[in-house]
Amino acid sequence: MRKSTIPIHGGAPHASAGAPVVTPITQSVSFVQALGTADGLKYARYGNTPNVELVERRLALLDGGEAAVALSSGMGATACAMLALLRPGDHLLSSSWIYGGTYKLFAEELRGFGIEVTLIDPLAPRMWRKALRQTTRAIFVESPVNPTCRVLDLASLANLAKAEGVALVVDSTFGSPINFRPLEHGADVVIHSTTKYLNGHHDALGGAVIGTSSYIEEVRRKMIVWGQAPDPFAVWLLERGMKTLDVRVRRQNENAQKLAEWCETRPEFARVLYPGLKSHPDHDIAQQCMDGFGGMMAVEVAGGGEAAERFLAQLEMVTHAPSLGGVDTLVSEPRYTSHASMTPEARAEVGIPDGFLRFSVGIEDVGDLIADFEQALR
């Protein structure tokens, strides 16, 4: 199947006469077990109920992996993915350009388990090799990066990971499998917050990990022990949302491109970050590895935090709220959301000064979005 068909039909059994067109919700924790055997045991916490298994097959097909496991949140997916790779005494190399929740997981929780973590500037390729240890087991990056929309060149990291026998893990939430599939570029593991583009409607929490079958079984064991299995209804909403993934993301790509181009003409914005702009520092890399530039863009409002707040207060259609990837356009200030735990100086070092706004562009008419921006700036 082509990638626009997979979200609708991928992994589904052939329907017989009288079967429902829409997958029913199997809202049950327990299932009847056969006598005298442990084979075929189904239980909601094991993540092997009918709605979950269908979505996992579909997710694996979308990203081109052998298998996938669905979890109850994106952070749950990241935590279980890393715990399946790392043990006490191991070492993790991570990009310093990562989501604030992931940073806390690495800096506080993993270190509490006796796992060493080194954060690397992703634009310093020699530092990755210099920071390697005999105990290094994995390299972790986000691409595109939250919230700066930077795009990393995975090729050199993939070569390094393979040469050293370590796993390359990529959080590809911002890209979605429609725009970017890291396994095709040398990654070993892909992580998604399915709350975002895959669901697409701001109404269901979830996460996913995609990789080899043997590795995914280890992630599943962690998921069972740590209680990260998803609820069947949330998975049903995810499957429903995935059916429109291709058309949603394509419209978001188009809208974000036009909105970013318009923002570049406005002196009120000191900087506009969108991979589809020629001015974007990673535009050439994005052209090489992405099928679309995504629905995420960022601006730095001239005048800093106070000017940004004045602009936000005047927006009428665009909603000030966290999260991303849905049909509604949202705006958030990372200094008060994803990176609130960092000092202003630390945020500025990673390109997120006061006045920085992250936009998740939806599927509205882009003319209406531009009009809302324009009246807010007036």
The CATH architecture category of the largest domain equals: 3-Layer(aba) Sandwich
Q: What structural class do the secondary elements suggest?
A: alpha/beta
H/E element string?
HHEHEHEHEHEHEEHHHEHEHEEHEH
Low-confidence stretches: none
Biggest β-sheet description: 7 strands, mixed
Q: Output mean pLDDT.
A: 95
Count of extended strands: 12
CATH first level of the largest domain: Alpha Beta
Task: Tell me what the structure shows.
It is a single chain. The protein is α/β, with parallel strands linked by helices and 378 residues long. Helix content is 38%, strand content 15%. It folds into two domains: 6-242, Aspartate Aminotransferase, domain 2 (3-Layer(aba) Sandwich); 245-377, Aspartate Aminotransferase, domain 1 (Alpha-Beta Complex). The protein has a seven-stranded mixed β-sheet, sandwiched between helices. Strands 8-9-12-11-10 form a five-stranded mixed β-sheet. Strand 4 (136-142), helix 6 (154-164) and strand 5 form a beta-alpha-beta unit. The protein is globular. The mean pLDDT is 95.
